[in-house]
Specification:
Elements lengths: L38 H9 L5 H9 L9 H7 L4 H8 L4 H5 L6 H12 L3 H18 L5 H7 L2 H9 L2
Helix pairs in contact: 1-7, 2-6, 3-4, 6-7, 8-9
């Protein structure tokens, strides 16, 4: 192209920052994304900023608290901000007293749906997002102990989350 790109119909000269088709460099390399620092940051990358991330994390992880007691729960809470980790780990919270432990995946999604006050379809999306975000920030050697503590159908969902 011999003439530079000039937007038509504008008043004045060329607008700063406008690029024409010949000005683009197709050889530019992709910049790798940095690894998220904690579970909330990884979850924000998946769900965006419109969602109450703390509420979603508590709703997804609180029903699993009893089955993950010990090191698996410690691996999860280590990826959370301190106040949220304390709220999840505290056994005497009113929230935990009202949370029912799931017998299977259907019960679990229904409980998450009740806690986040969204339909089950959306609750299932939240579960997949939290599982995948947790797997992105937890050390690789802690992933399988978490799966072993979950009910079989939830363990399958944990392993399949990406």
């Amino acid at each position: 192209m011999s003439n530079p790109y000039q937007p038509a119909g504008g008043v004045g000269g060329r607008l700063p920052g406008t690029l024409g088709p010949a000005d683009l460099d197709g050889r530019a390399e992709w910049v790798p994304l940095r690894r998220p620092r904690d579970l909330l940051e990884a979850l924000a990358m998946r769900l965006g900023s419109e969602v109450d991330l703390a509420r979603v994390v508590l709703a997804v992880l609180a029903p699993l608290r009893a089955s993950l007691e010990g090191e698996p729960l410690g691996a999860l809470t280590a990826t959370l901000p301190q106040d949220l980790a304390r709220e999840l780990a505290d056994a005497d919270l009113n929230l935990n007293a009202r949370v029912r432990a799931p017998a299977g995946a259907a019960d679990y999604v229904a409980e998450v749906s009740r806690l986040v006050l969204h339909p089950p379809r959306r609750a299932a999306e939240y579960v997949r997002a939290v599982f995948a975000a947790a797997k992105a920030v937890i050390a690789a050697d802690a992933l399988e102990p978490i799966a072993r503590r979950l009910p079989p159908d939830l363990a399958a969902a944990w392993r399949a989350a990406r």
